[in-house]
């Protein structure tokens, strides 16, 4: 017999009754039933109930066993009584009578329990992550993550892509976040960087004539943490293709992402028709470039109904350039109680409140109610109702000002209204491509034009587009949104040096600076670069959605905490003086 096991803790069933077996695993739970000891023995695959009574030759040793001890047992498989069968587990028809036991690893008093669903502080969970990872939910999450990655790889190979690895230690990359820098021992005073993404390398692979590339790529960014973002590193399905248009990239990646969600989505509906929405329309309708389309609400501009109206706050605001009024329709939200709740929500978001109108049945007809309705009169409120397509029992909320200032809050209010009124279909994955991103924006304080989005996207219209108003230039850049999260980002690349130099010149970057910062890629484009494009899909975020988790740390094996600290390994830590001397570095104490 094998030194540790003849079967896993998920394999035994009624056909094994009478067999002598050997199992190894962790003590999940111990139950003492008056002289009968039952142990739920757990390994990576499942649970088997093992038991002993005073007739067992090792009963005294079994009495000492405690939760999370790692043990090996030998015993006989027995059928459970009909009334004691557990249909919830594959081994529920049998139990194993223990004849011999070996303690493979004792466990001290546990800082957190593996059995059960107790909640523990995140700091405790991360410090003792190896115990946290033994819990059923995290075991399932990590298996799901592994299976998703395997499925992605297979789907990419089936589409004719090959996987190539790009460097982990490289130079600083223009991805818009902070780099993690690595001091060079051999080149004092110089630094490498961990790649924020394989962006430049994958484009160089296309220049090198490799038509299709993909990689499950680690990326490193020194970022402020969010619930849906790691503060240090993450993984993405990275791909690039030559001789393609934007639509070709969409047609390639959709079956991969859609297939993964259909395979691992637990039966939830997966949209197959992926709408393409312009960046400007997404901001107008949803207040974000990553809209949750499970919520059917679309915001609309209603400025004309308030211009010159009796509601002086909005009327005067509209006299200022660049201002507008937007309405958030709220079907079935037509009660003062609900409107007050949404007003309180707006105040929590830092606004004085939201104006609102709701429509109610007065017996002899419909009436518009609320402070706004009284100020602008029945004719204007009726025009608003008709524009928004609302009926009795519905409401509308209003935000005003320069769109950039209120769009994000409007988007969150739209999400809140959808949840509160149960308009959002929770049992669905809804996808949309966000397209036509503007390349440039103007700083309102300085008047300077700079890049708003990826500077390496090909401008729509090429060089000709760059001769006009920079704020009107759109790029072949795109994001894939799902349920309010950005899952994929990509672009058709600017592969022509003359267009690239012009694009950077508009944003105030001279040719010398471009060549200094991105010389490797720019130089390569001088030697017959093909048109190319691609995208990257965030694996951590995809698994988070599939696992129905709200925090990305629940699907990462060993995550950092909110302060980018590894509490288990003690990172970051102070280097030894010898290390600093080798690197020609000195740490300056903070005041």
Write the topology of this structure.
Elements: E1 20-32, E2 37-42, E3 47-52, H1 59-63, E4 70-79, E5 94-105, H2 122-127, H3 129-132, H4 136-158, E6 162-163, E7 181-183, E8 191-193, H5 199-207, E9 212-220, E10 233-242, H6 246-264, E11 269-270, E12 275-278, H7 279-286, E13 300-301, H8 312-317, E14 324-330, H9 336-348, E15 355-361, E16 366-369, H10 371-388, E17 395-401, H11 403-420, E18 428-429, E19 431-435, E20 437-438, E21 440-442, E22 449-451, H12 462-465, E23 474-475, E24 477-482, E25 485-492, H13 497-506, H14 511-524, E26 532-538, H15 539-546, H16 577-582
Helix pairs in contact: 4-6, 4-15, 13-14
Global mean pLDDT: 94
Count, helices: 16
Q: What is the helical fraction, as a range of percent? A: 25-40%
- Please outline the major beta sheet: 8 strands, mixed
SS strand fraction: 15-25%
Based on CA atoms alone, the radius of gyration comes out at 30 Å
**Structural class, please?**
alpha+beta
Note poorly predicted spans: none
Strand order of the largest sheet: 6-9-10-26-25-24-19-12
Alpha carbon gap, first and last residue:
65 Å
């Amino acid at each position: 017999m094998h030194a540790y096991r003849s079967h896993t803790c998920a394999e035994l069933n009624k056909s094994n009754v009478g067999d002598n077996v050997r199992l190894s695993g962790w003590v999940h739970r111990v139950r003492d039933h008056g002289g009968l000891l039952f142990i739920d023995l757990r390994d990576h695959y499942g649970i088997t109930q093992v038991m002993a009574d005073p007739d067992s030759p090792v009963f005294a040793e079994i009495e000492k066993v405690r939760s999370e001890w790692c043990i090996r047992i030998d015993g006989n498989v027995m059928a459970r009584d009909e009334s004691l069968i557990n249909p919830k587990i594959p081994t529920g028809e049998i139990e194993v009578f223990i004849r011999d036991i070996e303690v493979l690893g004792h466990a001290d008093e546990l800082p957190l329990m593996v059995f059960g669903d107790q909640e523990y502080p995140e700091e405790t969970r991360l410090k003792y992550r190896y115990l946290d990872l033994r819990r059923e939910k995290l075991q399932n999450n990590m298996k799901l993550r592994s299976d998703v990655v395997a499925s992605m790889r297979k789907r990419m190979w089936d589409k004719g892509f090959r996987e190539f690895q790009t460097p982990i230690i490289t130079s600083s990359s223009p991805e818009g976040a902070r780099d993690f820098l690595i001091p060079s021992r051999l080149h004092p005073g110089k630094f490498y960087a961990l790649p924020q993404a394989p962006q430049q390398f994958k484009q160089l692979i296309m220049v090198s004539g490799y038509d299709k590339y993909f990689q499950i790529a680690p990326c490193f960014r020194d970022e402020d943490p969010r619930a849906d973002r790691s503060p240090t590193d993450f993984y993405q399905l990275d791909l690039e293709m030559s001789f393609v248009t934007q639509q070709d990239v969409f047609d390639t990646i959709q079956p991969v992402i859609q297939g993964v969600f259909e395979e691992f989505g637990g039966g939830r509906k997966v949209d197959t028709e992926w709408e393409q929405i312009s960046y400007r329309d997404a901001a107008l309708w949803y207040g974000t470039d990553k809209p949750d389309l499970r919520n059917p609400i679309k915001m609309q501009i209603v400025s004309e109904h308030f211009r010159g109206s009796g509601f002086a706050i909005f009327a005067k605001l509209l006299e200022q350039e660049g201002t507008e009024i937007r309405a958030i329709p709220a079907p079935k939200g037509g009660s003062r109680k609900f409107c007050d709740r949404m007003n309180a929500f707006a105040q929590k978001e830092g606004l004085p409140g939201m104006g609102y109108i709701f429509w109610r049945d007065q017996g002899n007809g419909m009436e518009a109610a609320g402070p706004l309705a009284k100020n602008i009169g029945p004719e204007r409120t009726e025009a608003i109702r008709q524009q928004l397509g609302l009926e009795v029992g519905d409401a509308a909320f209003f935000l005003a000002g320069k769109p950039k200032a209120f769009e994000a809050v409007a988007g969150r209010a739209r999400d809140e209204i959808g949840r509160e009124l149960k308009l959002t279909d929770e049992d669905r994955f809804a996808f949309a491509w966000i397209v036509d991103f503007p390349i440039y924006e103007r700083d309102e304080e300085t008047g300077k034009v700079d890049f708003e989005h990826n500077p390496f996207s090909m401008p729509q219209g090429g060089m000709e587009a760059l001769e006009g108003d920079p704020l009107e230039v759109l790029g072949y850049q795109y994001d894939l949104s799902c349920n309010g999260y950005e899952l994929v980002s990509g672009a058709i690349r600017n592969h022509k040096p003359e267009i690239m130099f012009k694009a950077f010149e508009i944003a105030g970057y001279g040719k010398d600076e471009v060549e200094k910062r991105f010389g490797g890629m720019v130089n390569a484009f001088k030697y017959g670069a093909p048109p190319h494009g691609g995208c990257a899909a965030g694996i951590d975020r995809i698994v988070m959605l599939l696992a129905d988790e709200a925090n990305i740390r629940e699907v990462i094996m060993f995550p950092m905490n909110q302060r980018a600290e590894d509490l288990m390994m003690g990172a970051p830590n102070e280097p030894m003086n010898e290390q600093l001397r080798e690197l020609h570095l000195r740490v300056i104490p903070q005041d």
